[in-house]
Amino acid sequence: MGEEKKQRNTEKARFPIGVKLVLIVSLIIIVSLGSVIIFGFRQIHADIRMKAEADNIEINRISSLEAESVLARSKSGSKTFIQTVATLNSQRAAVQELKDFFFAENPHIMAVFFKSQGRESQIIVNSQLLSLRNIDERVIEIFFANQAGALRRAGRGETLLRNASVQFSRPVLALFFPCLNDAEAGILISSEIISSNLSYGKNKSLIINTEGDLLAYTDISFVREGINVYGLDFIRTILDSRSFSGQHLLESDFGIFEAVSSLDNKDIILNFWERLKPQIIPLVNRFSKILTDAGIENNLLVDKKSKQYIAFTKLNAANAVVITSADYNRIFEGVYSSARYSICLAVIIYFVSIILIIVFSKSISSPLKSLAAAARNVEDGKFSAELQYKSPDEIGVLTFNFKKMCSALNSFAMFTNKEVAVKAIRGDIKPGGLPKQCTILFSDIYEFAAASGNFIRSFGNEGSDKMIHWLNHYYTDMIECVEKTNGVVDKLIGDALMAHWGTLLSCGSSRKDAFACIKAALMMRKTLYYMNRERKKGDPANPMIRFRCGINSGIVTAGQLGSEKHMEYTVIGEPVNLAAQIGSFAKSLSADILITEDTWNLVGDKFRTEELPSVTVKGREKPVRIFAVINFLREPKGPQNLEEVRTLLGIDKNF
Q1: Cβ partners under 8 Å of residue 143, min gap 6
Q2: Residue 422 sits in the same domain as residue 398
Q3: SS3 letters across 535-579
Q4: Are residues 402 and 424 in the same domain?
Q5: What mean pLDDT is predicted for residues 578-603?
Q6: 120-153 per-position pLDDT tens digit
């Protein structure tokens, strides 16, 4: 009785949402006199925001164009220079004249490296620039010798931009690119020409590569440290974005050491931290200063949040991104100052009303958001809902009942096909039948009757429970193979499994559906192989399993079959009957996966198969050509012919 009473109280709203709305509206009326001030503030704020966003994007665009121009000109000029040097290789005077001209036109390029197939590498240096920078040529030789990996990638067609400042103790960029028919090429660029154009008023820019290495910044001391910023969330978001350019308003804290205090063994952590602190803190503080100078006021060791407009542009000339930031608070500093004076008379009422609105809005919006997310999960086939129904109003009642509905749907999905359940919920399954071009798979367990009888003989009354456990373990892995390949499990009949591809779900074409079906069968074979390896030989509670599989493709009728009280989605037709019969010939033909000629005609060029003797089946006047599936066509691992399949699975002529 107590539980029923509690449930009735949960389902009945004690404090209706209407009462809350009356309170909120009353408070809004009280503060309505301040709406004019707020409206004016919002308009000014919106105008300044639009201008700030536009300015940040434009400055980022300008910085990107300048960096792109330097890199593109350097890359293009170096390619032409390398090709010409390769042509004039034996003419020293001409090469020297060309070298002087090239470095005169490109004074920011320190050295050019290239190596073509069958020839030794060459390094051509800008002696005048090296002399001014007090750089030894041997350092350049050592640097390129250590960049073999990057050069090989360049030879394969990639363009890479790396920070070489650590090696040279000066702002230097290394650009690697393909040249001369897959030749390996790279240049060293004095990045001061790029860094000098990264600062415009309050907007600061920096350049990183796709690995998060800081490449260029107005304060070159940070570049020389070789700082990597990939660990920051917004950096990863930018690098992972498919957009070529964009802008975000971010609010974040960079307290990267916050997790230390939450660990259990604090003594060990603190000792470990004390050892690492001398090395880590200088790097952290240096990058903190970069963020501050760039308009991102922040101390990495303090839990402090700030907002920034972050604009980015990905460069075409290299694997690099130009990031420009503008501090939100600095932009709106004047607006906020004016607003504070304007609303000083109404600040108490405004403050109280905002607090109340936030409290009440959260009591409505948070549960509704949870319900909306749970509803989307149900539509996607995720019927488990972790919802709290503490609120004593209509939303609490709705949440409670929705959770009960999800529990019922979860139970329903276990007794039917999950894809069918999801389609039914969405209303995608219409009454009647439809012709579908699909591929059907039937599989069963070889000598299942003997195995089931052995369970009863070995365990008596407990044999049925152990057999169901054994079958459920088998079906769990088999069904996973079907669902991973976009297949639909139609039904389970004892030890037999029926599935089809191209009906409720499709890979896009009948050929792709047939490929997915055979792929699922090979996955089932592999899963069974490893499953059997874990079994102990002779274990009556977990005997070995060999399966037989028949696959056929054709046009079937798909639809809801049954009565008003019980109905299931299935496929019927002659192709289904043929698929069901094909698997029965596996024993006599000493194979495990058999496909018909119709399926072979669709994807026979994708798999390694062997044609077996044709078989006679019911309903067909002519013998049916069948093929044993061995492996993927270009898969070097695993069996390469039917004999190897038999050896691998322990199949003999008496299978």
Answers
A1: 164, 167, 168, 174, 188
A2: no
A3: CCCCCCCCCCCCEEEEEEEEEEEEEEEECCCCEEEEEECHHHHHH
A4: no
A5: 91
A6: 788 888 888 888 888 888 888 888 889 888 888 8
